[in-house]
Amino acid sequence: MTPDAPVAAVPSHGALFYVAAVNLIIWVGLFAYLVYLDRKVKGALSRRTPEDPR
Amino acid sequence: MGVLSRVAQGILALAMLAVIWGSFLYAKPAANFIGESSRIVFYHVPMAWIASLAFLLAAGYSALYLKRRRVEDDEAAAGAARLGILFCLLATVTGSIFARVMWNSYWNWDPRETSIVLLLLVYGAYLGLRGAVEDPERKATLSAAYALIAFVTVPFLMFAVPRMYASLHPDTVINSSGKIQMSSDIKLVFFSSLAVFTAVFAWMYALDRKVSRIVREAALAEEGAVAR
Q: Which end of chain B, C or N, has fewer beta carbons within 10 A?
């Protein structure tokens, strides 16, 4: 399989916007995982019955 | 949270800020890349590296579970697989953005793009399997066996397949002649980024394990309360 030849499409200054977007996506992804963990803990703790004082 | 832990987190945050600063302002754009697109590599490669590391951890803890039958090992394997999928997904998205800059298309079905999608499917099925089995012991055993088999595909899909076919993907960090061809400024930012993101992964993984323990203890407390 031979891929098509690369095509330059984005001016050099525009590529910096994509680098910033990559940064943002990574941090949103990592933060979303922390939110998932937080909800997991809250869900587990809310299931505890009132008899359990912990 | 201990003072040491807070200090370590502070250092990690500062190191991450330094890496972000370095990736934008210190390292010069690499040759053979369009404009500033080589800066994406500082983020994309650590994501792929951590995904491989997490899948290796998942396989290791799965093997330990099959040997020792400790629920902690099963939780550790599941946590590593979840984080592996997250980082694999981030590697896919960041790679896709790189493809848009370099080749004017977010997706080309390049061998690397295809193999990472297959990897996501393989580990997505792992989560599917965990969700489908009710009995905890059976779930742990089946998923441990699956994670071990799934890991066999990781070196194949991440390292072998992309080298077997012609690909648009730039050379790997260590090229075919066994050398790292990077200028010193790029090398510094790149390896700092690898180290700092790996530390972030270690922190998130420790947090995941702590959460799994809390959830397990809460479930046990609930069972105890029901029994009373």
A: N
pLDDT < 70: residue spans in chain B: 1, 162, 166-168, 171-180
> Which residues, other chains included, contact B206 with Cβ-Cβ below 8 Å and sequence gap of 6+?
none
Task: Report ipTM (2 d.p.).
Answer: 0.85
3-state secondary structure of B174: strand
Integer CA distances (angstroms), A43 to A36, A51, B6, B213, in order: 10, 17, 26, 14
How many Å apart are CA B81 and CA B55, to the nearest integer? Answer: 6
Query: Residue A2 pLDDT > 50, yes or no?
Result: no
Cβ of B39 within 8 Å of Cβ of A16? The answer is yes
**Closest Cα in chain B to A22:** B94
> CB distance B208–A37 less than 8 Å?
yes
State whether B34 and A22 contact (CB < 8 Å).
no
* C-alpha atoms less than 13 angstroms from C-alpha of B124 in its C-beta half-sphere: 8
> By the CB < 8 Å criterion, does B90 face chain A?
yes
Q: Which of B21, B82, B102 to mutate to test the interface with A (most CBs of A within 10 A)?
A: B102
- Residue A48's pLDDT band, with cuts at 50, 70 and 90, is low
